[in-house]
Fold each of these.
Amino acid sequence: MKNISLKTLVTALGMSFLLGASAPALEIEGVQIPQQTTVSGQTLQLNGAGLRSFKVLLVPIKVYVASFYSAVPLRTAADAMATQGPVKFNFTFLVAVDQGKVADAWNSQFKASATATYPGLPKDQAAFVSMFGPLKAGGVQSVEIEGNATRMYDGGKLKGTITGRDFQKAFLSMWFGPNPVTSDLKAALLGS
């Protein structure tokens, strides 16, 4: 066996560390979750990620993997609710979902979990839901919050923007309010 100098070994270990730094931070249900993403050119770090599932006749159905990115760590629900971003949510679906079920799912979630309400929410909610189409397994929907804008992406394509802090608070309350999608997912998105 050939002798390897200490300098060569240190260089090789350093390179493997650097290459490893670009590897996904996490994998959930086969979904690779990057450590970072960008919003308007600003790098955001993975704050937390988790699995959304629900039971049908006591059988758990795994629906999507959610990941949440922020410019600064948001470890409490109060911090997450107060953020004006930039933050980004990615929802990677594990099952195919048709247009009607996508709309039903978002509308049901708003009804069950959005505790920050305001008079214009029904109109903004309808606009939000209309921006998302059917999904294949592996399809990704994303929501960015930055300043006063909430931007929706479907399959990486910008579908529209809703302006106003009220809508942002309603959306954030679904994940971080008193009636979250699930308490396990709330904790996971907060990095708990």
Amino acid sequence: MAGVAVLMVDISTRKTIGFSILGTIDLIQLAQVACVFLVLPLVFLRESHISVDFITSRFRPALQRAVHVVSALLGVALLGVILWYSWSQAAIQVRQGDRSVTLGIPMLFYWVPLLAGTALSIVASVLVVCKTLRR
């Protein structure tokens, strides 16, 4: 919400008095990364991501569960690869001391929500697999 508020104020002041808030892009990008990646584990845990089940809905319950488990495990594998690659890239940028363009925010602040959200998404997906196997 803070990112949206900053953006709205920036647009309003730019259009009315010709003043722009310094670093709006940096703040909006940080807010977007945090919002997307910190809500992602909840999406996995609630199983509220988009799915197309017009084929699998016709399967028997046991086969549906198997497909569900396999797809969740594939998700865990993909998230693991994303986490590993992201960790590598974050380490490079932190070692180099990279900062955002306008405000000079350390890139670590952009990577922390991404890494935490991805790691928690793996945990959530594993919990979904366990819940599905218990049914």
